[in-house]
Amino acid sequence: MKRRAFTKQLSIAAMASVIGHEIVFAEHLPKNYVPLGLKDPDPFKLFDKDKEMVVLNDKPWNIEAKAHLLNDDVTPNKYMFIRNNGRIPQNIDASTWILKIDGESVKAEKSYSVDDLKTKFKHHTYQLTLECGGNGRSEFDPPAKGNQWTVGAVSCARWTGVRLRDLLEDVGIKSDTVYIGYHAADTHLSGDPYKEPISRGIPIEKALQDETLLAFQMNGDDIPLAHGYPLRLVCGGWPASASGKWVNRLSVRNKVHDGAKMGGSSYRVPCEPVAPGSKVEDSNMCIIESMPVKSLITHPKSGALLKEGQTLHIKGHAWAGELEVSKMEYSIDFGSTWQRCTLQKPVNRLAWQHFIAQVQFPKKGYYEVWAKATDTNGKSQPMVLPGWNPKGYLNNACHRIAVKVV
Amino acid sequence: MNKKLKKQNRSLSKTLITSIVTVLVLVGGLLFFTNDPDKTKTKAEPKEQSMDVSEENFDRIENGIHLATGLVADEGMQLVIQNCTSCHSAKLVIQNRLSREGWQATIKWMQETQNLWNLGPNEEKIIDYLAKNYGPVSKGRRQNLQNVDWYELQ
Question: Which residues form the Oxidoreductase molybdopterin-binding domain (chain A) (predicted)?
Answer without folding.
Answer: 86-259
